[in-house]
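SUBJECT: A protein chain and its fold
Encoding: whole-number codes for local backbone shapes
RECORD BEGINS BELOW THIS LINE
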Amino acid sequence: MIKNERIDIQCPQCGHNEFKLPENLKDSDFVKCNNCHFEIMLADLKEAGFEQAKEVVMPEMKIEAEKVFKNLFKGLK
């Protein structure tokens, strides 16, 4: 089972995970990190968040897949 159910998007500059968001948010809008005040377009922040999530989830998925394959071939010795 994958351990992380939620992964917060982190600021690419400082790693903080809270942002100031404009009203009626669109992908082309800029958001600002509440910590370092770094500004980034929401679409770019989403992409950064996706990459951050892959770094966490992929190793967990690999471990789970190895367990499944190990159990599949357990009785075939």
Observations:
- The chain has a mean pLDDT of 88.
- The first strand starts at residue 19 and ends at 20.
- Helices lie at 42-72.
- Strands lie at 19-20, 30-33, 39-41.
